[in-house]
Every structure is written in structure tokens, then in C-alpha cells.
Amino acid sequence: MKKIAFVIILIGGLVHAQEQEVDKEKEKSIKTANNYTWEGNKNLSESDFVNAEANYRRAISKSAESSIAPYNLGNAYYENETYSEAFGRFKQAGENATNKKDKHRAYHNMGNVFMKNKEYQKAVDAYKESLRNDPTDEETRYNLALAKEMLKKQQEEEQKNDQNKEDQNKEDQKDQKDQNEDKKEGDQNEDNKGDQKEDQGDKKEEGDKGEEEKEDKKEGQGDDEEKNDEPYKSEEQKQQQPRPNQLSPQQVKNLLEAMQNEEKKVQEKIDAQKVKGAKIQNEKDW
User: Maximum Cα–Cα distance for the chain, whole Å?
Assistant: First the structure.
């Protein structure tokens, strides 16, 4: 990069690169601005940045059309690594410059600021503009070639990063797809397990129902057997079970037997009386 050079103005000398006629008031303002610029240069040589900045600003306020004060102030900011402020002053100097030499220097230094900020495309444009005003400056041409090379590397790096980002996005999408498929498969397995459980539950329920039906059937068969036996039992029981105000057959039988026994006893008594009262024959009845 081109070394920053400050424009030195000798008090009482000719005004830098100004060959046009001016009135006395304007000439006075320019002279005052040059005095402040000179003071600013002196402050910078003494490493007094604060007073240098103040004097350059005073110079700019006295002669807004001057390119020297903003250019030197831009250099002061550049050396102080305040690049955004430096660019603004170089831009102002380039706009105020009335000759190609001043424009060339201003745009060259703007290119330097862009290089510091890694804005290589803007640096290329600034160096090209500088060369339009002075095509013979080999240092500017070298800076332009360097800016182009840095721009190429930057674009390749950005392209590589974009490709990596795209590949990463594809990989993320693939991973997400796989996760969704795994989740879907897991949900299906859970559903299948649930269906199996339901089937088992249904089968168990059917089995229970079958067992219940078997039990009911068994009980039903028992009831049927009891019902089938009922007519036979009822016929016998009908004969044996007493009806209201009637004796049962067994009671009748018992009663008859008792009566027969009583009759037998009575008959025996009668027979006994007959035997006792009968005469005994001692002799044969011939």
C-alpha cells in the first residue's frame, strides 16, 4: 500500500494547486485555512492528535472547498486506525479536489481503507478511479492487483462456505427425514403393539365369554337334568306327599297295619277265650 503522505503548505507561499483568481475575502479564508492546516501538520509531527484534529477541522470550516485539510485529517485518522472517519475525509477531499493529482491521492487512500476493512470489491473500484487520474502510479497498480487477488480468494471462500452450508442443510434435512421415519416407524410399532394387546384382550374376553358360556351351558344342563328328573320325582312325591286334610299313603299303610295288628290281637283274645272255655274230652269220641 502507498505510504500516507501529508501535504505540506508553506506559510506565505503559493496556495496548493489553485491557479484561479479569487477575491480578497476568499483568499483570506484560504490563507487562514492553510494556516490551520499547517498547525495541524505540526501537531501530528509532535504526536498531538487531539490538537491536530482540532486545527484540521478549523481549516475545513474556513474553506469548505479545500481538499488539503480533509485529506490530511483523513491521513491522521488512518494513522490512528479510525478507518471510518478516515474514509469520510478522503471522500470529501476527492470531491473537493480540483486537479487529477489530488483526486488520485484521495481515491488511492480510499482504496487503502477498503483493504483494511476487507471490502475488496470497493477497494478495486477505488484503485481503478485513482488510476484514471494517474495511470502512471505503479504503487496504485500494484494495490489494484492485490485487491483483485484478495477479492478472488474472498469469493472462493464465500462460495466454499455457501457449498458447505448447502451440504450441511442437506445433511440436516436428511437427518431430520431419518428421524421422522424412525419416529413414524416407532409410532407404527406402538400402534401394532396396541392392536396386539387389543387382540389379546379380545381373545381373552372371548375366552372368558367361552368359559362363561361353558359354565352357563353346564349349569343349563344341570338345570335340564333337574327338570328332566322333576316329572319322575314329582309323580312319586305326589303319591307320598300328603295333601291337605288327607293321609299319605305311608300313613294309610301304617294305619292299616296297626289296624290289622289290633284285629289280630283281638282275634287272638277271642281265640284264647274259646280255647279256655271249651271242654276237654278225656275220652275218644268214637
Answer: 222
Look up residue 118 and give its three cell numbers: 476487507
Distance, CA of 86 to CA of 114 (rounded, Å): 11
Residue 108, CB-side half-sphere exposure with 13 Å CA sphere: 26
End-to-end CA distance of the chain: 196
Residue 190 has pLDDT above 70, yes or no: yes
Residue 233 vs residue 278, higher pLDDT: 233
List of residues 6+ apart from 89 with CB closer than 8 A:
70, 71, 73, 74, 77
46: pLDDT confidence band, cut at 50, 70 and 90?
very high
The percent helix, strand, coil of the chain (3-state, each to 5) is: 80, 0, 20
Q: Under a CB-based contact definition with an 8 Å cutoff, are residues 56 and 69 in contact?
A: yes
pTM of the model: 0.55
Mean pLDDT in residue range 79-94: 95
List Cβ<8 Å contacts ≥24 apart for 56-63: 58/33, 59/32, 59/33, 59/34, 59/35, 60/33, 60/92, 62/29, 62/30, 62/32, 62/33, 62/36, 63/29, 63/30, 63/32, 63/33
Q: Could you tell me the three cell numbers for 254?
A: 301304617
- Are the C-beta atoms of residues 95 and 71 closer than 8 Å to each other? no
**Closest to 105 (Cα-Cα) out of 16, 248, 228, 6:** 6
C-alpha cell at 39: 498547525
The cell for 97 is 479536489
| CATH number, domain 24-136 | 1.25.40.10
